[in-house]
Amino acid sequence: MSAFALPDPFVVAQLSTSEFDPATAAMADEVIAAGAESVYHRLVADQESEVVFLLARHALKGFFSTSEEPTVQDAGEQDAEGIAERTAQVRRHITGMLQPLREAETRVRDAVLAQRAPLALIGGCWLDSVSQPATQPATVVNQLVRHQFVWRGEGNPRRGLHQLRGRALEEREVFLPDVTAPDFLRQAEARSLTAWHGAYYLGLAKLPATFLPEVVGTHYVMAALGIDELLLGTRPMLTEADLRATLADYLALAPPPVRRRLYAAVTRTLAMELDHARLLADVAEWHAGLSLDAQVARIVARHAPFAGKQHRNVRVGGRPLTERFDDPDFDLAAFLADFRASPQMKPRDGGCRFLRAIKFGGPMFGIFDEREAATFQRWAEAIAAGDPPDIELPPNTAGDDAARALAAAIRPTPPDVEVRTATRGDDRAFLHRLVNIENFPNTLALARANAEEGLARAEALFEHGGDGVLTDASWFDYSPSALNERVDRIYWDKLVNPYQPLTEIPDRDEVVFGQKTFALGSMIDGAWAHRIGATGRYTRRSDGMLYSIYADEMGRGDVGKNHITLIYQVLASLGIEVPHIRDTAFLDQDELPDHLYGFSLFQLSLALFPDSLYDEILGYNLGIEMFGLGTQRMHEMQKLRRHGFDIAYEEAHLSIDNLSAGHARQSAEIIIAYLHDVAKLSGADAVASHWRRIWRGYASFAYFIEHELVAGLARREPVDVVI
Q1: Cβ contact 614:529 at 8 Å
Q2: pLDDT higher than threshold 80 for residue 626
C-alpha cells in the first residue's frame, strides 16, 4: 500500500469509467434528442442530478471524436512556451476576424455580443468544482483555485467575471436573462453550435478530476485568447504569464499520456474558438444583410404567436389578422407585402395609423420595445418615400453543418459508461464512491438519503441540544440579534470559559490515537462548501461569503496554507501513513478507525446538494467553524506540543476561525445576510421555514460531536422528528 506524501502531484483521476443507474440513460437520451439548447440548459441549471454527469460524458466524448488529433507532437511545441506561441498566433488571427464586428453598426454588433453571451457568461465554469476532496491538495489544482478566486471577485459576486461581463453587455444595451433561465438561449438567439460549445465547457465543469488535462489546456487557451475581453472591451483578470506558469507546472508533473491529452485539448479549444469566431462573423454578415423589410419581418415573427382575439377586427390583405397569424401555413413574406400596402401603413399627416397605435395612448403601446419601434418608424418612412419592397427572408444557417456533426457524435452512449444499480456497501466503499463521485454518479440517490437521514435525526437536538458540551442546538426563534447572542453564548460558555490547561498529558500512543479519530474528517476539510458558487448561482452575498470561507480552507491557492496540506503534515509527524482518500488503496488502509466514518460520509453527502440543501449547509458551516475554537483545540495543541508533533492544523483553525472577525463570526453573518435576502425577495413570513432548515444543519453537525448526549438520547423513548 503506497502512502500519500506531499507535495501532491495529482494530474488526473485514477479512475476513468463512470457508473450510472439504468434509468438515467433514457433520461439523457431524451435531453439530447431535444437538441443542443436542451443539453446546455440542463448542464447549466442542474448540478445535483445523475443525468447531468451522463450528459457531460456524452458532450465531452462527442467533441473528442470529432476533433482532429494534433499533427505536431515534438517536445518543443508540447512545452508551455510552444503552446503559448501557438495560442498567440491564433489570437492574432481571431483579433483580425473580430475587430470589424466591434465596429459594425449597433444592431449587428449587439447580435454578435448576444450570440457570444452563452459562452461569455459561463466563462471559467470548468473550474467550478476542480477543487474537491478527490483533487486536494494537488499543487496545480491550488493554482487553479487561485485563478478561480480572482474570477469570483475574491468572494464578492459583483466583482466576479460573470457579473463584470454581464454589466459590460448591459452597457451596450444587450439585456439577457440569467444563464439558468429557461429562455436564456432563445433571448440570445443562440445558434445550435454555440449551445454545443457551451455544453463542452459545462461538461468539463462536471468532471474536472477525470478530465483535468482537458481542464488545464482549455483554461489556458480560453483565458489567454481572451475573445470575450476583445469583444466587450474589458480587461483580463488573469495575466498570460500567470496562466503559462500554471500550464508549465502541470506539464512538468504530467506523464507523456497525460501531456498528450492536454495538448489535444489545446488543439481542440483553439479550433473551437476559431470556429466560433467564424460563426460570429457569419451571424454578423447575416444580420448586416437583412433589408429593412426583413428586419421588420423578424419583429413580426417574434410577436405574432402572442396576438390575441383583440385583433379580430383588424384585416390585412382582406383577412382578419388573428386568422392569418393562426394559420399553420402562415406566409411571413406574403403577410409583410400585404401589411406594407395596408391602410395601417398608409402615410398620413402625423404618421401612419400603425405608428400611432404603438405610441403611448395607442391600443398597441408597450408591445414593442424601443429598438423595435424605431425599426417600424424607419420602415414607415421608407414606405412613405416610395422605397421598393425587399422582402426576401434568408434563413440563418450559421454553424448548422458543424452542429449537426456534433449532435450525431454526442448522441451515442460513451464507451466509458457502465450501467448498474448502486449499492452502498460498507462505510469504506461508500466513502470511496462519494469522494470519486464523478465515477459513481449512481451513488447520488444514496448520498441524498444519507444526508436527509442525518438531518432528520439531528432535529432531536432541537429539544435536548442545550445539554451539549461544545454545542447548543436547542431551538430558538430567529432574529439577527438572537443568532448572535446564541453564537456568543456557545463561544463563551462552552468553548472558552471552561478552558483550563491540562495538568496531565496522555502518553504518546493515546495522543496519536486521538488524532486518528479526527483525521478522516480533517482530510476532507472544507468539503461541505466545495460546490458553492457554481456557474449560474454565484449571485447572492451569502454565496460569496461562504465561497470565501472555502477559499480560505484551501489556502486561497497557496498550497502551503491549504488545510488539507496541513493535516497531512500533522499525520506525517505522527508517523501515520495512509494513501490519499481518492485512491482505491485507501479502501485497505488500517490506520484510521472504521467506526468514525459517519461524520465524513454525512459531510460528503451534504456537499453534493448545494442547491436543494443550501440552507442546511449554511447551518452546518456555522457548527463546524465554531468547533475550531476553544478548549478542545487548545488541549490538542498542548498534547501535540508535549510529544513534539506538528500543531499547524490546530493552530491554523484556532486563528482563522476566531469569533472576532474570523470564520465563526463570518458564518453567523452569512446566515443573517441570506435570511435578509429571503425576507426581501419572498417576504418576512418565508424566513421561518428557511431558518428551521438552517438550524437543523447546525444540529446535524452537533449530532456527530456530542457523543454522550446522543448516546443518552438513544436510551430514552424514541423522539419524533419533523422533516
Answers
A1: no
A2: yes
**Per-residue 3-state assignment (H helix, E strand, C coil) for 218-282:** HHHHHHHHCHHHHHHCCCCCCCHHHHHHHHHHHHHHCCHHHHHHHHHHHHHHHHHHHHHHHHHHH
CB count within 10 Å of CB 100 equals: 12
Give first-to-last CA distance, the chain, whole Å: 43
User: Average pLDDT, stretch 473-486?
Assistant: 98
CA-based nearest residue to 628, from 619, 637, 615: 637
| Residue percentage of the chain with pLDDT more than 90 | 89
- Antiparallel, parallel or unpaired: β 319-320 and 18-20: unpaired
**b vs e for 490-529, b when ≥16 Cβ sit within 10 Å of the residue's Cβ?**
bbeebbeeeeeeeeeeeeeeebbeebbebbbbbbbbbbbb
Q: Which three cell numbers stand for residue 383?
A: 414606405
Residue 113 CB burial class (10 angstroms; 0-12, 13-18, ≥19): buried
Question: Residues 21-38: what's their mean pLDDT?
Answer: 97
**Residue 695, pLDDT score:** 98
- Other Cβ atoms less than 10 A from the Cβ of 5: the count is 11
- pTM comes to 0.95
Band (75; pLDDT cuts 50, 70, 90): very low
Cβ atoms of 629 and 495 within 8 Å: the answer is yes
72: pLDDT strictly greater than 80: no
CB 61 within 8 A of CB 414: yes
User: Is residue 465 within 8 Å of 471, Cβ to Cβ?
Assistant: yes
pLDDT computed for residue 2 by the predictor: 81
Residue 352, C-alpha cell as written in the block: 401612419
Q: Record the cell numbers describing residue 551, joined without a space.
A: 477559499
Alpha helix (H) ranges present in 459-562?
A: 461-464, 480-489, 508-522, 541-553
**Residue 334 has what pLDDT?**
93
